[in-house]
Design a protein that fits this description.
Elements lengths: L8 H21 L7 E2 L2 E2 L26 H17 L4 H15 L1 H4 L4 H4 L5 H20 L4 H21 L76 H5 L18 H4 L2 H17 L2 H12 L5 E5 L6 E7 L5 E5 L4 E4 L10 E9 L10 E4 L4 E10 L2 E5 L6 E2 L2 E4 L8 E9 L9
Antiparallel strand pairs: 1-2, 3-6, 3-8, 4-5, 4-7, 7-13, 8-12, 9-10, 9-13, 11-12
Helix pairs in contact: 2-3, 2-10, 3-7, 6-7, 7-10
């Protein structure tokens, strides 16, 4: 199943319409098998009815013959999010959604590109593609502060990283860890390749490996070079390079590990789908983690949708119990020790120009002068708009540039002698100009 990678909303809409049409056509063509399907799930028919639609790790529409690019990406990022931040927020799930979307769009945008799918032994060009996309992710995060552009490039890169494990013989060679060079910073040349005219598969079936060097199968029009008889086929029903004589015998010989179906992954390899998918998941996580030294922790937080609001108690001696909420969300009540910081990550999906209100309650001061400060710190894609304080039912508004704002930090001062003060701070989303239309 092919999807479009373009950032254009119009192009994406057209792609989804085409996708829906293909799903409906697929249902009619296989009506006898009574497939159950919707926009995210298709039950696979027994007679290989997907025909030429499957070319690699499953698209997100197929669910019962192996793990898809969608599932591999989701599993890897959710595992990373859980280990790094704990509970996954709505904003973090939205970030995953956008990475997945551009991952699966690669098939339509670059369906005939061998390097995008690591077909035809195009390791060098695939590695160069990953280096370029990685640089674009870094640029989007460090310079433009644009997580949407970064997630688009990340999704496109992860597609190629994942296809390496489905299309190469890395798993066939008995490897149980990710490749130390492919898809890894700083994207050095790959060693141990079966390049040139070196035979890699039995010349009769082109599906039985005959090399201990690294190779990938040749697939249809995306092979990247003319097919050589002693090289391996990608294999499967969709591979037009598989000889018609073999297809007539039901032999779709090749070395791909895209599925657990013998129609799309040859018998000798469909049992290796699970270990290939597992390594693809591990490699996906490593690709993301290795961005952190280049963009910093804050940059990776922005990419993953985990940029927090932080609140700090600057009182050097007294703890405080404070309640913080965004808009009408349920409040978070926390106990902050002196100089302690609380990170508020449960942000909703953010779009450029949107405004939100932060309500902070519970700040108190035993000091008559109230010279005890707290600070609210915003991530770089948010800015302060206005600020007011309510004391015993009386609201006082302050100019946002009135000496209490320092960059993305707002100093909050409780009023001396009052047990509780409510601060209402309006913030606005900025720097997300590439955010999608709602």
């Amino acid at each position: 199943m092919h999807f479009r990678t373009s950032a254009s909303n119009k192009s994406r809409t057209q792609t989804w319409l085409i996708t829906c049409f293909m799903v409906l056509a697929y249902g009619f063509l296989n009506a006898g098998d009574a497939p159950a399907f919707n926009i995210v799930s298709i039950a696979h028919p027994k007679d290989c009815g997907l025909g030429g639609l499957l070319t690699e790790f499953l698209p997100s529409l197929v669910t019962d013959i192996g793990k898809s690019h969608k599932e591999i990406t989701e599993d890897a990022i959710r595992e990373l999010d859980n280990d790094r931040y704990g509970p996954i927020t709505d904003q973090m799930e939205k970030a995953i959604e956008f990475v997945v979307l551009d991952n699966i769009f690669v098939d339509a945008e670059l369906g005939g590109s061998a390097p995008a799918h690591v077909d035809g032994e195009t390791f060098g060009r695939a590695q160069a593609r990953l280096s370029s996309l990685s640089s674009e992710v870094v640029e989007a995060l460090k310079t433009a502060k644009d997580p949407f552009a970064a997630r688009a490039k990340l999704g496109q890169a992860l597609h190629t990283v994942q296809d390496f494990y489905a299309h190469s013989n890395w798993v066939n060679l008995g490897n149980s860890e990710v490749h130390p060079q492919f898809g890894r910073q700083p994207f050095n040349p790959i060693s141990g390749l079966a390049g040139g005219d070196s035979p890699t598969c039995d010349s009769f079936t082109n599906g039985v490996l005959s090399t201990a060097l690294l190779t990938t199968g040749y697939y249809g029009s995306s092979s990247g070079r003319a097919f050589i008889g002693t090289k391996c086929h990608h294999g499967g029903k969709s591979d037009t390079l598989v000889p018609p004589s073999s297809v007539a015998l039901g032999n779709y010989a090749g070395i791909n590990k895209d599925t657990t179906s013998t129609c799309h992954t040859p018998t000798s390899n469909h049992g290796l789908h699970a270990p290939a998918a597992l390594l693809a998941t591990k490699a996906t996580r490593k690709f993301i983690e290795e961005l952190e030294p280049l963009v910093g922790a804050a940059g990776l937080d922005l990419l993953l949708g985990a940029t927090p609001l932080t609140f700090q108690n600057f009182n050097a001696s007294s703890p405080v119990t404070v309640s913080i909420r965004l808009d009408s969300e349920t409040a978070n009540t926390v106990d902050l020790n002196p100089m302690q910081t609380f990170s508020y990550r449960n942000l909703p999906a953010l779009f450029s120009g949107d405004t939100h209100t932060i309500v902070v309650r519970g700040l108190s001061s035993a000091s008559v002068t109230g010279l005890i400060f707290y600070s609210l710190n915003l991530p770089t894609h948010l800015e302060f708009v206005s600020y007011s304080t309510n004391v015993s039912g009386h609201s006082v508004s302050f100019p946002i540039d009135g000496g209490q704002v320092f960059g993305n930090r707002l100093l909050l001062r409780p009023f001396g002698g009052f047990p509780e003060v409510e601060h209402r701070i309006k913030i606005r989303v900025v720097g997300l100009d590439a955010s999608p239309a709602r």
